[in-house]
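User: If you would, consider this record:
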Amino acid sequence: QVQLVESGGGLVQAGGSLRLSCVASGRTVSSYAMGWFRQAPGKEREFVAGISFSWSGGTTSYADSVKGRFTISRDNAKNTVYLQMNSLKPEDTAVYYCAAKTVVGGTTIPGRYNYWGQGTQVTVSS
């Protein structure tokens, strides 16, 4: 199995940028489809971005709310997945989680992911 540790969260003004990192240990990230999710207080966990298995081409997908602003990427040599977040808005404020899954499909569904990190807080001030 794989262990995931997120970092890179913090406080940023609206319009600013952050890059989240998710370092994996135990197994290589190329073995998994990876996703980023977020959860704001009082709300359900929601899909942000995903990247498919390396063997399937590493196709990326995004929630409509972040499309054009966020970019997910994977560095297999560093066993790390990134989420570059630009043009941040106050509504992006949430705890961001990295997740890994071994099954095909269900990219946007939290229940399809087998492994989760502990989360990192992102706060965007207006």
